[in-house]
């Protein structure tokens, strides 16, 4: 296995959090690829640990010399991701991931308004409850809890075009005398400048 990093850029977010952007060239046996990655890191003691990892394939491996010589016409563009600029795709991945982190932070802070603002107007609860009934239930449950702690890990973002994304993660939740761990997937759509939740799926670990 050979992994090479280049074009490394670090964006600090305070003293204990950072986003690291880079180009990764990977090769193993008969497989090669080049991707752009964004890693979110947090400082734990004296160590920086990865808390999120986003990747977007942006380059195809060059053709072998023999294949180049035999090539008579330009290859058609790949669809749909080839039509999306790499920088725009990476930026969209980061924005979708940050929207999910903001949703968890608002939930932990018991900020009901910001928590509900993370959802699209056409969000449909998985259990068939109406949006109005679901919203009333969430207001009641979050509002009456004295302490809430929501931690996300193993975050993965899968882009579906440049305005829709699926974000999967492991959620550790605790509130008052209750705690649980589950795997979740949030589907988000970009509305204006905001990434909003349109679907939420959960499975207890």
In short:
By secondary structure, the chain is α+β, with helices and mostly antiparallel strands. It contains four helices and eight strands; from the N terminus they run ββββααααββββ. The strands form two sheets. It has a four-stranded antiparallel beta sheet with strand order 1-2-3-4, with helices on one face. The chain has a four-stranded antiparallel beta sheet with strand order 5-6-7-8.
Write the layout of secondary structure elements.
Layout: E1 2-12, E2 17-28, E3 31-44, E4 47-59, H1 65-70, H2 86-108, H3 112-117, H4 131-144, E5 148-159, E6 164-175, E7 178-191, E8 194-204
Antiparallel strand pairs: 1-2, 2-3, 3-4, 5-6, 6-7, 7-8
Low-confidence stretches: 59-73, 75-82
- The number of distinct β-strands equals 8
Q: Biggest sheet, in brief? A: 4 strands, antiparallel
Helix content: 10-25%
Shape designation: globular
Please indicate the percent range of residues in DSSP E strands (runs of 2 or more).
Answer: over 45%
What is the strand arrangement across the widest sheet?
1-2-3-4
CA-to-CA gap between the ends? 32 Å
Instruction: Compute the average pLDDT.
Output: 82
How are helices and strands ordered from N to C? EEEEHHHHEEEE
Number of helices: 4
Radius of gyration: 20 Å
Structural class estimated from helices and strands: alpha+beta
What does the model show?
With 205 residues, the protein is of the alpha+beta class. The protein has four helices and eight strands. The longest helix is centred in the middle third of the chain and has 23 residues, at 86-108. The radius of gyration is 20 Å and the shape is globular.
């Amino acid at each position: 296995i050979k992994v090479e990093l280049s074009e490394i850029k670090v964006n600090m977010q305070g003293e204990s959090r950072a986003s690291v952007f880079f180009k990764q060239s990977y090769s193993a046996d008969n497989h090669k690829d080049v991707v752009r990655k964004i890693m979110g890191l947090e400082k734990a003691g004296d160590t920086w640990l990865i808390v999120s990892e986003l990747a977007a394939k942006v380059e195809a491996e060059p053709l072998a010399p023999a294949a180049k010589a035999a090539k008579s016409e330009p290859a058609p563009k790949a669809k749909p991701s080839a039509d999306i600029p790499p920088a725009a795709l990476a930026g969209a991945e980061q924005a979708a991931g940050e929207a999910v982190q903001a949703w968890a932070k608002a939930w932990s802070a018991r900020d009901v308004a910001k928590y509900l603002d993370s959802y699209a107007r056409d969000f449909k609860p998985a259990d068939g409850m109406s949006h109005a009934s679901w919203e009333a239930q969430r207001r009641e449950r979050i509002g009456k809890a004295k302490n809430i702690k929501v931690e996300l890990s193993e975050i993965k973002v899968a882009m579906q075009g440049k305005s829709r994304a699926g974000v999967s993660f492991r959620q550790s939740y605790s509130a008052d005398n209750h705690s649980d761990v589950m795997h979740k997937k949030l589907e988000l759509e970009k509305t204006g400048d905001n990434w909003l939740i349109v679907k939420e799926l959960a499975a207890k670990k």
